[in-house]
Amino acid sequence: MSPMKVGLLGLGVVGGGTWKVLTQNAEEIARRAGRRIEVAAVAVRDIEKARRLVGDQVSVTTDGMDIVRNPDIDIVVELIGGDTLAHDLVMEAIKQGKHVVTANKALLARHGNEIFAAAHEKGVMVVFEAAVAGGIPIVKAIREGLTANRIQWLAGIINGTTNFILSEMRSRGLPFNAVLSEAQRLGYAETDPTFDIEGIDAAHKLTLLASLAFGIPVQFNKAHVEGISSLAQEDIAHAERLGYRIKLLGITRRRADGIELRVHPTLVPMECLLANVEGAMNAVLVQGDAVGPTLYYGQGAGELPTASAVIADLVDVTRLQAADPDHRVPHLAFQPDAMDDIAILPIADIQSSYYLRLRVEDRPGVLADLARILSDAGISIGSMFQEPHGTTEADIIFLSHSAREGDVDTALERIQALPFVRSPVTRLRVENLV
Amino acid sequence: MSPMKVGLLGLGVVGGGTWKVLTQNAEEIARRAGRRIEVAAVAVRDIEKARRLVGDQVSVTTDGMDIVRNPDIDIVVELIGGDTLAHDLVMEAIKQGKHVVTANKALLARHGNEIFAAAHEKGVMVVFEAAVAGGIPIVKAIREGLTANRIQWLAGIINGTTNFILSEMRSRGLPFNAVLSEAQRLGYAETDPTFDIEGIDAAHKLTLLASLAFGIPVQFNKAHVEGISSLAQEDIAHAERLGYRIKLLGITRRRADGIELRVHPTLVPMECLLANVEGAMNAVLVQGDAVGPTLYYGQGAGELPTASAVIADLVDVTRLQAADPDHRVPHLAFQPDAMDDIAILPIADIQSSYYLRLRVEDRPGVLADLARILSDAGISIGSMFQEPHGTTEADIIFLSHSAREGDVDTALERIQALPFVRSPVTRLRVENLV
Fold this sequence. Notes:
2 copies of one chain form a homodimer.
Chain A: E1 4-9, H1 13-24, H2 26-33, E2 37-43, H3 47-54, E3 59-61, H4 64-68, E4 75-78, H5 85-95, E5 99-102, H6 105-122, E6 126-127, H7 138-145, E7 151-157, H8 160-172, H9 176-186, H10 194-197, H11 200-214, E8 224-225, H12 233-241, E9 244-255, E10 258-269, E11 281-288, E12 292-299, H13 303-320, E13 351-361, H14 366-376, E14 381-389, E15 393-400, E16 403-404, H15 405-416, E17 426-430
């Protein structure tokens, strides 16, 4: 069979990796796909630099539109990032009847509904394994491997930068800012780290996972997002003492009244595999009603792991492009006419367990007052410990059983107003998972 | 679209689970597959018992041939087990042009080459996600998720019974026989546990994983298989002290001169996720050249997890049956005309690290003699410890660096013949993985 012709938009880290792996493993890939997959054209900013990598056999342009409108190109691979130029190029590629492979979580989390609708209309595939958790085939696992299941929830470490920072904070006892600087020096964090450390990147990915799991439209704007920049070293140490590690988790869960969609630092029991995912590694735990818990682990970013996911999608498209569109795998795992419109729950309506830390004046009656307020709000305490701070104050840590977040907020407002409470209450969520 | 009509061969644990999940999650599955998937006929031993489960709407027969020859059936699901009747029914189903879903690892590990060739010839699919690691979509991950990679090796805990036994032996300090009896009482082990405890079931699954990873024919008869029935409690304790846990691993690895294919108890570093897979859970670690390590974890057996895998295959077949056979996913991940004939290495030619334990007379010169023999054989020692046994003897434990197994055998023969060696040498393999 004649080779599949690929047009690469972008030849940065992931684009370069895709070129390298397609070249080095060309034979292995053709043995699987049944035909060769060749890069026929690339769009880049720096033509000279691109030529040094791809040589003279590949068409090189600075205008992405040259590629998406090139009639010889079968599949467009979008690796530019962002949601402006990338958006225009992907929409035009679809209009031109081309299949699209993309690693762009921001684009899909924000404009996925429009993009998938256009692709469905035109009968082309838009696939995005590389957009979530790098080389781990988690999109395929949920979309195709767990189709028998009513998925109940999933929880994932889906940002390597923050997991690296949290691992270092714990193992070396260092504060956030010190570890962030080191991560930047090592190349694990960007110069402007906001997207990673504030949980936005994780929320983009979680938004896509939630759609795949539950068959709902992408709704990034409804996600609750908290990062790790204000996480205190002492809470990591206290958590450890209680048998927990703190991870930045993306969590989405089906409730009777809606879907939870949230990214935040989370206490996870130490014996849970997720708690043992260290450094820049990613992992996603998925709970299905038939299969029970399954976990997927691997490198969530980087040149070659992400290229691995891009190329897996290229092989899938190579195979499926011959099938009629109605028999292909749906973009978001569910048929477009079978999507659900279950609401995303406001954060006040989620259910979680909670870790609460506060500093109080050390005098009789304090614990009784705190316990009564929590109990009045229907919050039941699983465990607590208290340790002196100096001679007149004490730190108290509570671990609650599952409660509605709005009720916790109400109790914390009352607690915060008590005269003997000497600090803002630190509140972290606890997920016991499986 | 009209429903897909499924014929179930067998309505035992997995067959019953498949019926239940297909019924309970019918709507969720149809939302994904684009049409309903219905059981139209079942073949069972006990018609009365089957009727109580499936009611009157489903055709029930005692003769599987009624199902595989029924023109109304689109997909045959083989859940009988064994390789006699199941073999005849699967071959006849293929001959009748039906797609086949099977959970039967013994059948495919022993007769896969014949079955896949017949299926290719006839243009039908034979899929087997449920045959390896229950509900974990590991077949799909290797076959489709990692297609970019030249896979270097994989190592898996792919038998839940033995992992349960090893977990209990370690955590409770009990000997093999005591834990086996308990596992039988709890239903984790069969009355005749040979297939599980001697590693045969794991070797069936490993044989299939090796074919998917490397594009080689199934060659169960070339696998090296050792079980856990002669594993001593004291080796589990010594391993723990050295920072390792003992797991029954299936390991397959690409070497310059061939493929390693082996199942045996293995020391795994404690910090490796695989070492932390406890109880009856399964996990497979796959190393690809682009993606690096990825791990897949979940329940490896049981009614509903295995049904989850069967149904994922049913949905795949439902989608792909409309595609022309040349554009479907190949049975063993590689195109039939692109399979490789790399040899499976004899066990003497594998490379591994080794754990050696022996009892010796406690007198000067012993350690020097042992060290010289190992060194003469080119075996380098990473660590060792010695502890007294009574007043005149000592136990010595060596951990070697990577060595050729045949060289280790030669050295052990010489060591065993030494006059001061008072016990048979215990030899276990050590894999440091990643």
